[in-house]
Design brief:
88 residues; alpha+beta; OB fold (Dihydrolipoamide Acetyltransferase, E2P); 5 strands; 30% strand; globular
Length: 88
């Protein structure tokens, strides 16, 4: 039962969203349920030469990506993948 409850809690936190605006300091997303979500771009992400160009490509392709609604962060892994720092 705890596994089901934990999965339901995570499903509310991690949402599918697409980028609707992008600056060097902020990413604006539209979530699957129609809410706007602002995600700040960190200093290390700004220094990464591939980060913003990759996000621009995702934005122009109108792809939906996983975003942590609670922490206002992009995920480093996909919905289907197990994070490398977590035991499966």
């Amino acid at each position: 039962m705890a596994v089901i409850e934990n999965t339901l809690q995570k499903s509310n936190i991690i949402v599918s969203a697409k980028i609707i605006a992008l600056t060097n300091k902020m990413i604006t997303f539209l979530t699957q349920d129609g809410q706007h979500l602002l995600v700040p771009v960190t200093q290390s992400e700004r220094e990464d030469i591939l980060f913003l160009p990759t996000l621009k490509d995702i934005w122009h392709a109108e792809l939906w990506i996983p975003v942590n609604r609670k922490l206002h962060q992009l995920l480093q892994y996909d919905w289907m993948a197990v994070p490398t720092n977590t035991k499966a």
